[in-house]
Amino acid sequence: MNENDRYFSYIPDKLVRIVFDTDMDTDVDDTGALAVLYSYVQEGRAEVLATVGSCNSGCAVKCIGGINAYYGFPKVPVGISPDCPSSGKSPYQRIIAEKYGKDFPDDKTARSALEVYREVLSSAEENSVVITVIGALNNLSDLLKSESDKYSPLNGIELVKKKVKICVIMGGRFPQSTPVGEYNIRLDVDAAYYVIHNCPVSILWSGQEIGESIFTGNMRNEMEKDNPVRLAYNLYGNDETGIYARQSWDLTTIVYAVEGAGDYWDIQTGSIEINTENKILASNFGPAYNNWTAGEGKDAILVQKMKSEKIANMLNKRMVMAKKSCVEENLLNE
Ligand SMILES: [Ca+2]
């Protein structure tokens, strides 16, 4: 059996081991997704193996690490892409970094996302890791292209095939994204193309249409007053009343990674293709539209089933459920 003949299947483990790959840059839903992830961690349903950033702004690691630390996990490895530039337009990233991330390195001196990926995968159990990508696909592409190193004699494709259970990616729009491609695909078209054609394990695509009608963040006044995610939504929405809500593209992706489709969504298997003509990277968006062909295959998309309001309510409750942890100082002093 050829590796491309694998059929889509995903049953989450009781403890889902997550690599959280985020652009944590412009949009605020990456912070909401991290809050949702820590709600599962604090319930004992997930473990965060690593958090890596795909857009390098200078302070992405401080921002991501600062949120990890707030929830009680200052030692979760944080890596950053050395190449992919930030949009420079984040209304919250620098403020969160300065307020919560002082103990973390700046992006210039931080570890690369690739090194962090390879280290955590090499020490993971076989077929155990769930990679969640809620930003550009540059880090995952770099991983797949990587050669053996001090962490593992396996190249990137072999390492992913051995250790990764599934990649859950917020990307694309289904069944088609024409005439304009979806944001995360457009951020790095070459990387998206490489991942689509070389990833040896199943990919679940959570398309733009899934999170689009689900608005969250508007229960944030029930979060702890010093919660960095609450602050990020205030800054992003320029709203301190707590009413502002944002679409939930990244949050729904995390829910699938930990719970599977549940009663929330149906699954449709098939294959994705993207148009790479006129591809333009990063800030100069090109078309890069995608097309989905339903049928048997190793990949799948989510199809809306539960009403958006009901999913929004669940996500809002999870954001509130994730609490500041008092183990932070103990861990730092170890
Ligand atoms: Ca994102």
Q: Could you explain how this protein is built, in words?
A:
This protein has one domain: Ribonucleoside hydrolase-like (Inosine-uridine Nucleoside N-ribohydrolase, Chain A), CATH 3.90.245. The strands form 2 sheets. Strands 4-3-2-1-5-6-7-12-10-11 form a 10-stranded mixed β-sheet, sandwiched between helices. A two-stranded antiparallel sheet has the order 8-9. It starts with 15 loop residues before the first strand and ends with a helix. The longest helix is centred in the N-terminal third of the chain and has 14 residues, at 29-42. Helix 1 links the parallel strand 1 (16-22) and strand 2 (46-53). The protein has 13 helices and 12 strands. The protein is globular. By secondary structure, the chain is of the alpha/beta class. Calcium ion is lined by residues 22-23, 27, 30, 134-135, 250.
Mean pLDDT: 92
β content, as a range?
15-25%
**Tally of alpha and pi helices:** 13
CATH fold title:
Inosine-uridine Nucleoside N-ribohydrolase, Chain A
Counting structural domains, the number is: 1
| Overall morphology | globular
Count of strand segments: 12
For the largest sheet, list the strands in their spatial order: 4-3-2-1-5-6-7-12-10-11
pLDDT < 50 runs, ≥5 residues? 280-285, 330-334
CATH architecture: Alpha-Beta Complex
Structural class: alpha/beta
**What bound compounds does this protein have?**
calcium ion
The separation of the N and C termini measures: 48 Å
- Helices and strands, in N-to-C order? EHEHEHEHEHHEHHEHEHEHEEEHH
| CATH 4th-level superfamily | Ribonucleoside hydrolase-like
**Which percent range fits the helix content?**
25-40%
Radius of gyration: 18 Å
Largest sheet: 10 strands, mixed
Name of the CATH class: Alpha Beta
